[in-house]
Amino acid sequence: MHRSASTVRHAASRATALTRQLLAFSRRQALNPTVLNPNRAVTDVEQLLPRLLGEDIRVVLALAPDVGNIRVDPDQLNQVLMNLAVNARDAMPNGGTLRFTTTNVTLDDTTVLEHAAMRAGAYVAVTVSDTGVGMDETTKAQVFEPFFTTKDTAKGTGLGLSTVYGIVTQSGGHIEVDSAPGRGSTFTFYLPRTEAAEDLAPPVRGPETPTYGTETILVVEDDGDLRQVLQEGLEALGHVVVTACNGTEALQVCREAAFDVVVTDVVMPEMNGRELSERLTVLYPELKTLYMSGYTDDIIGPRGVLESGLELLRKPFTVEELARKIWEVLHARETLSRQLEIDTRKELIVVRPVEQVAYRNIVDSATSVLRHPLYDASFSVLIDLRGVRLGLGPREVEALIAALETSDLKPPSRVAVLVDSPRETALVLLYKQRVTFHATQVFSTEEAAHEWLGQCM
């Protein structure tokens, strides 16, 4: 059933707004600060809360009309407000009142002593209070510690308030909590006030690419709220979306259905996004992968998703930005395939990649060669890797061989590889030692490679 265009736009817009607020943040994430008014941020978040809180919780805003501006990353500020709202919701299982307050605060050398770790100066104080169950002193002392939680493991990771603390601190602010059993909780965070005018410049957009589509997408995300929002937003744009909460579930889902692309978080428990993609590529060589993450390079780099040729979308993003990136991933021409030459007269296939080539490129290029209408398994293949760095390791070499072995496509019987660096030579020799379905030789000159190929014919 097709939804009307207005319904699609409305759902996409709502999901886009929700996504911007619900994306998970790390305390080590890079900041993108801008000057904004906190009242605007609170008002924006308040519009999203009915869906998040339910009907039993009343939201009250008490915003000072003269409150000053602050310099902060707007997405991270929204994340702070959302996390505090979720914490309040969980503290009021039978309903209650959630109150947001903003006010200007100036601390002098005397009053600053009442606030540990703060300096004298002009601040904006934002208070989020609830009428929930409250906390005892022991809980209060640990409330900002990572992985500390009083909730069931199915309901919380213990990172929500730790993330709040990290964002506020990294933004040059300070946060305090006042609570007692049966009296609710009040969180107040202070951010430095600035005299600069609010930055209302519209975001700069790149070239437009289609957002509406009909592709079948698997979204792998361990955050339940975000997973639901991404599914709703992409479905509103016409896509067919299936979700999985971790790598194990994603592997099972892929055995039951076919997908055009997998959109996966990078940092997940048990199996990270790169490991999932490698396993899926062995089973389904043509399946595309788009990674998404809100972590900085020092966190995701060791997981192998920063290599050239891999597609990564940085959080925070909107559903429309995600849809455009999916379109680019599905329709981009791969570097390797652009360097493909097939000479049917000489029965020779030549592949000349450039610069750095990642595992995903190699698998996609090999698939495109084997499916090319001019391809014949009796042809010889020459791969010129001179001046090229392979974004591979021994595990990827093994996975590449497994992908070719399990494919329904017949690989060529002989492959000559030109290399000019010790590292790439070692990787190709490893491939040669392990592969059994064709003869492979390594050469340093094109003349020697052609001579060997000619003798094999």
Short description:
The protein is an alpha/beta fold. It has helices at residues 5-22, 38-46, 49-53, 74-91, 137-142, 160-170, 224-236, 247-256, 273-283, 297-300, 319-331, 335-338, 359-370, 394-406, 422-434, 446-456, and strands spanning 34-36, 57-63, 69-72, 96-107, 121-130, 174-179, 185-194, 216-220, 240-244, 261-265, 288-293, 312-314, 340-343, 348-351, 356-358, 380-384, 389-391, 414-418, 439-443. Helix content is 37%, strand content 23%.
Structural description of this entry:
This protein starts with a helix and ends with a helix. Helix content is 37%, strand content 23%. The protein has helices at 5-22, 38-46, 49-53, 74-91, 137-142, 160-170, 224-236, 247-256, 273-283, 297-300, 319-331, 335-338, 359-370, 394-406, 422-434, 446-456, and strands at residues 34-36, 57-63, 69-72, 96-107, 121-130, 174-179, 185-194, 216-220, 240-244, 261-265, 288-293, 312-314, 340-343, 348-351, 356-358, 380-384, 389-391, 414-418, 439-443. It is built from 16 helices and 19 strands. It is elongated. 37% of the residues are buried. The model is unreliable at 1-28, 152-158, 202-208 and 333-338 (pLDDT under 50). With 457 residues, it is of the alpha/beta class. Helix 4 runs antiparallel to helix 6 (160-170). The strands form four sheets. Strands 1, 2, 3, 4, 5, 6 and 7 form a seven-stranded mixed beta sheet that branches. The chain has a five-stranded parallel beta sheet with strand order 9-8-10-11-12, sandwiched between helices. The chain has a five-stranded mixed beta sheet with strand order 13-14-16-18-19, sandwiched between helices. Helix 10 (297-300) links the parallel strand 11 (288-293) and strand 12. It has three domains: 38-194, 2-Layer Sandwich (Heat Shock Protein 90); 216-331, Response regulator (Rossmann fold); 335-456, STAS domain (Transcription Regulator spoIIAA, 2-Layer Sandwich), CATH 3.30.750.24.
